[in-house]
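Researcher: Hi, I'm a grad student and pretty new to this. My advisor asked me to get structures for two proteins we've been looking at. I'm not sure of the right format, so I'll just paste the first sequence and hope you can take it from there.
Model: That works fine. Here's the first sequence with its structure tokens right after it:
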Amino acid sequence: MKATIVQAGNEDMLRRAVEVLRGGGLIAFPTDTVYGVAALPWDVDAVARLYVAKQRPKNLPIPLLLSSIDQLSRVAALAPEFAPLAERFWPGGLTLVLPKTKVVPDVVSSGPTVAVRVPDLLLARDLIRQAGGVLAVTSANVSGRPSPVTAKEVKEHLSERIDLIVDGGPCRGGVPSSLLDCTVSPPVLLRRGAISEEILRSVVGLIKTS
């Protein structure tokens, strides 16, 4: 069964997307960087299905996208020394790896940490907010293939593996978020992306590279 495609301008879009998520389904939608595919993080079966749909290795945790920085304390702990990063770059293309709280299921991240971000796209934040403020989201592609920046590319990758695709047009960023491990000091840049290493250093100082 192929995924249903809905346009972002459709007044019914948010309701339908949330219904799919609450029913244990998977949805894809645009962010400020690339299209993501999402499940409710508290739904263990849905997150397990997300791994299968992407053919994602089980040892790779699923990042969490937040509707706002106010949701952060629910799922992760941010040390004061790294708070300026969230204040400066959220919403935006920076994902932080942080110590996770007890509410984050092991199926999302089996280790002690979790990756979190607030996307800089109102559509994405509205959808996440309507779904409860936190979603488990990773790029809407089969693992190892290029990250999609259009709904058409999502369809080519995952149409028969997910339930709903929100077509919001091409992603304006097109580059995955930068990934910074803030569980150590100095932090470690695990993936170069939307925010340059130089700009990150201007806020937090010394950064190591992996």
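Researcher: Oh nice, that was easy. Here's the second one.
Model: And its structure:
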Amino acid sequence: MMSKDSGVRFFQVRLSEQDAWSGAMIAALFNAFGMLIEVAVVKEISGVSAEPAAISALLALILLLVLFLCRKRPSVIWANIAYLFTTASVITVLLLTNLHFAISERNWVPFQESKLGCLVAAMVAPGFWIGLLSILAYCLSALLQLEFFFPPAVRARAAAMEPWPTLAFGMAGVLALVYRFRRAQLEQEVARIQAQNFAIKRLANIFLNIRDRMNTPLQVIELSVDLLRHSDEPTEPMLDRIDRSVQRLREINSVLDRNEKEIEWEAKG
């Protein structure tokens, strides 16, 4: 029953297999279209290779096809793996192309793709910790590249704009991720309470049914016992009526046995 999930924190919320799978598919779709756009942009800029983006787009399309074909057998674990693969693919391309963009384009705005990745991770990550890891990977990979791999001239040019915008997008992604999974936690709690209320109502209906069924046999038994005490007539017919009433009570007891394991509920501690 869902009552076991009543103490789950938002960062422990487990999305349904279908939701996790859909998140991995959307991430692969974002990657495929984003990298195809990257290829189109790179072709207009000399000195920047389109090969990393093209390879990433191809891998994303293959992954998207696999996820689509396996959509009827979703798995949270494989959704997480697919999502991490997508994140790693995007970050690898950015690490390979950012420096070339920074050198070739005087008006280059640093790490726009990484900032977008932080927000996308918050929206579609199949798990809280997977999403948090992705957001940190997008932020830290960009900032570490800026600090340790960019030439001093490029770093000085980017210093007027970074690292605060990237950190702001990372923080926004984390807050959006927390909100998303907090909302999922509340939705699951509402579903748990509704299921519990349904079980309680069903149990109440069963007891009302039992009460109605027990009234007649009990009245027959009481009347028969009273007649036996005050009558000299043959007792066989009355004993038969008692037997039939006892049999009906046994049938009612079997109803209880059938429903005993179907209705479980656990009081909150």
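Researcher: Is there anything I should tell my advisor about the second?
Model: You could mention this: DSSP finds eight helices and no strands in the chain.
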